[in-house]
Amino acid sequence: MDRITKDVIEQLPLTEIDKVTFYKRDEVTTDLICCDVAIADKVWSFHEELSGWKLLMDHLTSLPNFRVDWFASVSQPPFATSETIAFCR
Prior knowledge:
Blueprint: H1 6-10, E1 19-26, E2 31-39, E3 42-47, H2 53-60, H3 70-75, E4 84-88
Antiparallel strand pairs: 1-2, 1-4, 2-3
């Protein structure tokens, strides 16, 4: 997948999302923020460099009790995985 479109978002209905997990991948000189969205037995994986990342974030923040502080938890310390569960049903 090279971009997050409205069609992709439509395949992630809020009522069916079981878990949203954020983490970082060490890319040697930078960190890449990633997001896994679990629905039933499928996991959708995204990262911040994909076109449409903001569209995905806007969608996910509509989940009830979504952790809006996920970025602060994931971003520090640098180059550590820092996995954070932002939503779990």
